[in-house]
Batch of 4 targets.
Target 1
Amino acid sequence: MRIRGISLWRRSSPSPEETDPFARDEAAVQDAELREILLRYALRVAAAFAILFGLVFFVFWWSGAAVRFGAARAADRVTPTWRVSGTVRSAATRQPIPWAAVEDDPNGRPPFYRTDAGYSGIFELLTLAEPHRVRVSAPGFHTMFIDMGRRWFLWMPEGRETLDVELQPD
């Protein structure tokens, strides 16, 4: 508004962005750098949270498996989760021994699982993951006892183990 040549609006001094064209670019660069730093930080926090969440989920799953296994073992309703496979051979000839018996040691803690090797001496026994002994026997050969399994609660309550056995002839 003007009254007889006098301006009622007062003009303020010009801002640095108006006088220096590079000041605007520097502010934009600083804003972009700040956004990039904040984005990296947010991604790191999100990754740390995801890893932590995954670890907590794994621990709860693992402890639940431990409790289920212990409860089933106490109630004599445990299911075999440890797969032992291999070949039974003669120690003298290295030839496979057909129809060899591979079983949990009957002097151990029940339940007991058993399988027979095939014609080529190959067997697969499904048993418990806990440490125990397996008895391997065949007519005309000495019986062999082998320690197998693992402390299931150290890692997982299931798994595989390869066991190649050489029996001594009588």
Target 2
Amino acid sequence: MREIGPLATPIDRLDAQGYVNVDRRTLAEVEPWLRWSPALCAIVMAIGTVLGSQWVLWGLVPFAALGAVFPRHPFDLVYNHAVRRLTRTSELPRHGAPRRFACGVASVWLVATGAAFASGIEPLGYALGGMLVAVAALVSTTHFCIPSLIYGLLFGRPRCEATPVSPARPAT
């Protein structure tokens, strides 16, 4: 059965995260590796939640915050400077505002989850942590990013900045 809709393919879902200005061939090549940072975050979030450890969760906050401030997540830099040499793929591209927004949301969520555990409100910590892990796992397995979708609803979906070239008149 063929998927339909505006977020039907992994590339469509990456566009919703702000990768609209990335060359399509490059994006297709690195598409599986754009799961790298969300997957690593999901693993650490899961460990922190299962252990009920505010320290593990709060330890991830600076990484998420840096991902919100800069156009590359710190884990993307690990991929770009080490892992990609093994995979022989292109660098991961800079991410756009929707993905940075998602990192900002994750930062706040991590602080709140850690605070719940630190305050002794374990049921709230497990609920917040479980939802956080689920959202991160969804991004890392399907590229469907709920915070990026919210960003698109609030501020508009990212649009390609390049001027489209007519198929009838190739670029010179």
Target 3
Amino acid sequence: MPWSGAETAPAACPTAAVLRPLSRTVVFNSPGMAVTPTDVMFYGILSEVDVKCETSGDALHASLDVIIAAERGPSTRGNSVDFTYFVAVLGPGDTILSKKSFGIRVGVDQNEKRGGVTDHFDELIPLRGIPAASLRIVAGFQQSPQIIEFYRHYSGH
């Protein structure tokens, strides 16, 4: 959908990728307490980020789809979980040009082990003379020190 009153053209999109170290997360039964697999209520998987673009003057209109799944853990309570993930735009030299966090709720049907959602949003990225193809869009889960410690000890989960 073009921006009102502006000429638009197909644009070379920045590459879009999930940061592998930040593609997984967990929600614990007792936040701030145990960090073992038996205390996990839900595992989160950020599996894909897709982007489509068009230019409008010196700005890029990016339409993003982020796919997030939840999997029940041993201590699951309830049928949904809230995750926080971020999307950042990186410029030349991996300079962070912008970063936004998003909250998302993922439902898991009562008799299912996994559920997933596609989060869609549009972003206007000022190019400031930088070619769109030289930018990168990256996504990952926001991680607490507790989650980092969990994956340091239990990386196979």
Target 4
Amino acid sequence: MRKLIVGTDVINYSITYSRKAKHKRVAISPSGVKVVLPLGSPEQEGIALIESVKRRVHRARERILKQEKTRKSFTELRYVSGSKIPFLGNEVGLTVVPEKRQRTRTEYDGSLTIRVQADLTSKEVEREVRRKVERWIKEQLLRETSTLVQVLRNKIGVFPKGIRIKAQKKIWGSCGRNHVINLNWKLGLFPRKVFEYVVVHEMCHLRHMNHSKAFWKLVASLEPDYRKYAKWLRFKGDAVL
């Protein structure tokens, strides 16, 4: 393992060879940094390459590590007492209370309290709490979406025939020709402005069922910074799907 010195930081990297590589390059991922060389290339070329771009490597590595930390905060939610559940840019405290009861109950007063049956196993408790937390997020997101849609309705002049918050494996939102807007419940885990951008995006499809210039012009008129939030979803949100 070689070391790249950038200011006071030390970045470990390796040099590998690939039959498919036609040009030398630096590859950066959450797991590490490596220089990829075509077969037969002198190792010194790899060292010279990474030294010549070390400040760019340092910036890219910092960005990727930050993105990975964000991804883990969303994907490694713990459904136990003391956990923090992200919701539209805030954190909601979670308390799990085992007690004698036949049904799980959810209470919210600024923090979430899930009251579960005392005779459940630890795995059953976690599964039940997860189900209740996700249901709570869906319910809250539906309310937030309904409020935002009313505001956008006055600006766009159209209104969806329905709003559904559900689990979607590959997309954040959709709007079909039936004029029903579907949103991924995991949008509730993200900052509010990211969620609002997706709602704006789908509402604009009520006017333009495509991604034409007219569509993006309408999006921009409602959310001038839409590119920033679309980029956020690509680089941070997609890891959660």
